[in-house]
Specification:
The protein is of the alpha+beta class. The protein has a single domain, classed as Aminopeptidase. Helices cover 24% and strands 29% of the residues. The chain has 5 helices and 9 strands; from the N terminus they run ββαβααβββαβαββ. Strands 1, 2, 3, 4, 5, 6, 7, 8 and 9 form a 9-stranded mixed β-sheet that branches. Helix 1 packs across helix 3. The longest helix has 15 residues. The two termini are 32 Å apart.
């Protein structure tokens, strides 16, 4: 019998089309300095700027806050180099969802590094966030996508999202209802 290398919850090893092996896992406090250093390499620029709330760069306080989400209503995954320890591995992608105060919906943001863009990580990360939101018994997952990012809008539409009102200027709000089975978003009836 061969012992399997089991990963902790929400951890996945993925082999990308470009030959890189990456690890998707929840963010950890020790990732804050690496997140700050890697942040400018993540795209799209509009989403990065939107996440920063108009700031020019990610500061120490914001990186610490993002690296220590409130597990009751926030969830953040990072895509890292597989072979390096947390706090040392470059962050190649970030997916974040947070419950919108006073609602039963979560708002999400996804950023992917230039060197791994187009490898299917966006779809995979959206599926993971949708599963988290469904597990929290939320009604919907919604996010603001740059209007000029046609591929991301098309990806969201292909996963069952619909365009709705309420986005900031220059963005399109995409909303995925979670109550219905949405196999294209990686959510099946009863699988939460």
């Amino acid at each position: 019998m061969v012992a399997r290398n089991r990963l902790p919850p929400w951890h996945e090893e993925i082999h990308l089309r470009n030959g890189h092996d990456v690890l998707i896992r929840p963010i950890r406090p020790e990732d804050a300095p690496v997140l700050r250093a890697s942040f400018d390499l993540l795209e799209p620029d509009d989403v990065r700027s939107h996440l920063l709330g108009g700031l020019d760069a990610m500061g120490v306080d914001l990186s610490r806050r993002l690296a220590q989400p409130d597990v009751r209503n926030e969830f953040t995954l990072v895509v890292t180099e597989q072979q390096l320890a947390p706090g040392e591995a470059m962050i190649l992608g970030l997916a974040r969802a947070a419950v919108v105060p006073g609602s039963r919906e979560a708002a999400f943001s996804i950023l992917v590094g230039r060197n791994v863009a187009g490898m299917g990580l966006g779809r995979h990360l959206i599926r993971r966030l949708a599963r988290w939101a469904r597990g929290k018994r939320l009604d919907a997952l919604q996010g603001d996508v740059p209007e000029d990012n046609g591929p991301l809008v098309e990806l969201a539409l292909s996963m069952g999202f619909a365009q709705v009102e309420g986005a900031d200027p220059g963005f399109t709000r995409m909303r995925l209802p979670l109550a219905e089975a949405t196999p294209s978003a990686g959510i099946e009836d009863g699988n939460g």
